[in-house]
UniProtKB/TrEMBL annotation:
Taxonomy, superkingdom: Bacteria
Record-annotated TACO1/YebC-like second and third domain positions: 81-235
Name of this protein: Probable transcriptional regulatory protein IV38_GL001923
Entry's localization field: Cytoplasm
Annotated stretches, region: Disordered: 1-21
Species this chain originates from: Lactobacillus selangorensis
GO molecular function: DNA binding
Major place of residence: cytoplasm
Amino acid sequence: MSGHSKWHNIQGRKNAQDAKRGKIFQKLSRELFMAAKSGGPDPADNPSLRLVMDKARAANMPKVNIKRALDKAEGGDDTHYDEITYEAYGPGAIPVLIHTLTDNKNRTNSAVRVAVTRSGGNMGAAGSVSYMFDRKGYIVISREGLDVDEDQMLEDVLEAGAEDLQTSDDAFEIYTDQKDLAAVRDALEKKGYKLETAELTMIPKTKTEIPADKVEQFDNMIDKLEDDDDVQDVYYAGTFPEDSEAK
């Protein structure tokens, strides 16, 4: 694979995310709690929890915060969160998936709808957007200080069981079948690679450039959604104009 990367987009938003670090930790705590409640607090016996813990470490979440979330689950806290994924079209008719964990559906329904519609988007019916995305495993290995070329990395990731490799100046991005993520992660770590992140994500099958006159509205919608305590992840099948120019 080639072209502009998911990792580039993540890094491009990093400064804004740094300012929201406390909120990110809060959301990760919710994911850790849910994973531990459903599969137990030991990541060795709970692959879902291991993935969330990897995600938490990649976000530099303090160990004490991780332990607090696991202790809460192990301690019998009866808080329940519903997983709800909303489908929408953002400004410029860009497909958007919004994954939430909520203890109050009405509150979340209202907040997501307001964030989308007041930014010039529209809510979609169930199934209207999700078919445009594939659920994949996603692994990032930074190229900083790494003396491995693209050919060697491709050989290693395919041997580990991955499906695809995307290379940029900053990182190697590896895509796997969702069922193979843990196995590929473990195989690459055994080869000595340090992984920046290893997680399940939604990858758009195709991307459309966000119209220049809709960029501000679209960015505003994403910020409002990511700022909501109940929104865990936002995925969209669009590229910003400057991303397209960099291809």
